[in-house]
């Protein structure tokens, strides 16, 4: 497939939003989906990057924040740093339920999430004198005709 087909497919995918994407910022929603969803397992950053399509730096920043709060734990095998959901955290069950429910519920359209904007009605401005199509405009100021008094 060429790049145009991939862009069209991505636009169709982005047109629908899951419950996680509505409740949380995009990066956090994807991390919750990967670490707390039905396919729950430890993952390393590059793997999350490939599965989610997000930028490396945004995933790193979000994992740093979630690790500081204690929702996500990490360990290293010497080569990769793996991140996993912290099962001992008080919010673990709730985040897991939201992530799993998000996968089961139908996605909503982007347009359903926002109030429709009011279309401004433009006033039609009165048009000035029409220009004749037979050449130059006739303004009437340099004409040889004199007004009858």
Which helices and strands, and how do they pair?
Layout: H1 3-15, E1 16-17, H2 19-23, H3 26-36, E2 43-44, H4 45-52, H5 56-69, E3 72-76, E4 81-85, H6 92-104, E5 108-109
Antiparallel strand pairs: 1-5, 2-4, 3-4
Helix pairs in contact: 3-6
Order of helices and strands: HEHHEHHEEHE
Shape: elongated
- What are the segments in which pLDDT stays under 50 over at least 5 consecutive residues? 1-14
Mean pLDDT: 77
- Profile the largest sheet: 3 strands, antiparallel
CATH architecture grouping of the domain at 3-106: Orthogonal Bundle
Tell me how many strands there are: 5
Fraction of residues in H or I helices: 40-55%
CATH topology of the domain at 3-106: Arc Repressor Mutant, subunit A
CATH superfamily of the domain at 3-106: Winged helix-like DNA-binding domain superfamily/Winged helix DNA-binding domain
CATH class of the domain at 3-106: Mainly Alpha
Radius of gyration, in Å, reads 30 Å
Outline the structure in words:
This protein has a domain at 3-106: Winged helix-like DNA-binding domain superfamily/Winged helix DNA-binding domain (Arc Repressor Mutant, subunit A, Orthogonal Bundle). Helix 3 (26-36) crosses helix 6 (92-104). Strands 2-4-3 form a 3-stranded antiparallel beta sheet. Strand 3 and strand 4 form a beta hairpin. The chain contains 6 helices and 5 strands; from the N terminus they run H-E-H-H-E-H-H-E-E-H-E. The radius of gyration is 30 Å and the shape is elongated. It has helices at residues 3-15, 19-23, 26-36, 45-52, 56-69, 92-104, and strands at 16-17, 43-44, 72-76, 81-85, 108-109. The protein is α+β, with helices and mostly antiparallel strands.
